[in-house]
Amino acid sequence: MILYNNKVTSSTGFSEKIFEKGFSIYEVIRIFKGKPIFLNDNLMRLSNSLKKSNIKIDVETLNLPDKLMRFIQLENMVEGNLKYVLHFTSDQPDEYIYQIPHSYPAAEEYQQGVPTLTYSAMRENPGVKYINTDLRTRTNQLIKEHQVYEILLVDRDGYITEGSRSNVFFIKNEVIYTAPVEYVLPGTSRKRVFDICQKYRLAIEEKRIACSELAHYDAAFLSGTSPLILPINRIDDLHFNPQWPILQEIMKYYFQLIGVDPVFK
Questions:
Q1: pLDDT tens across 170-184, in order?
Q2: Is 198 helix (H, G, I), strand (E, B) or coil?
Q3: pLDDT-based confidence at 101, cuts 50/70/90?
Q4: How many Å apart are CA 173 and CA 218, to the nearest integer?
Q5: Any idea which fold 107-257 has?
Q6: CATH number for region 2-100
Q7: What ranges in 159-203 are assigned the alpha helix state H?
Q8: Which of 16, 45, 170, 232 has the greatest count of CB atoms below 10 A from its CB?
Q9: Domain boundaries, the chain
Q10: In Å, how far are 4, 71, 128, 212, 245 from 185, measured between CA atoms?
């Protein structure tokens, strides 16, 4: 089922290829226990994407919370990911809400970490969450070919900015580092990490991290809608400690926020 302009429509024959024409702004919303989590953060980011794209739409007029709950109830949805798309081919956008496949990390991956691979690419307008079919296709290919969990994007100057579908953090000694907000898509989970660090007085800095400096860091982790907070055990051929104490603290506090068992089962 799809909600197309708030009307129930069959998903038969639907393909995201329709978004290859025109311009599409979107959000992926995590549903947990039958409700969206951190929805206000999604709405704030959607509003920011519209403003940065010079699109004069007030997010409040979209009534997105009501539409999402309608979809959730119609589908009897308990857990999963929803995608909300505003597709512009004319002045008046078309609106889509539908489920997308999700792959949540297993308990072992939270405990042992996941492998990642660097790739030279960057988003042209990182602050806007828009559909970039070419980049998504290429990173999906690399993930499959190299059997890694995520692709870390490296800009023209050799700095790691973000993951293809996540934000990335690095830990050195007692300090957490991540790319400055102007270089990345500010994820809702990224914001939650900053909130946790502020609340529990953990040191965090926005700093550009060069690939050439990675060997000097002790740990690294991803944040995102599907992974939540997920340790990295390898970037290319460099290995990192998924059990680093500060990383484990952040994971504990994050999962407490959403009421998930701390052993990640």
A1: 999 999 999 999 999
A2: helix
A3: confident
A4: 7
A5: D-amino Acid Aminotransferase; Chain A, domain 2 (3.20.10)
A6: 3.30.470.10
A7: 188-199
A8: 232
A9: 2-100, 107-257
A10: 26, 26, 7, 23, 27
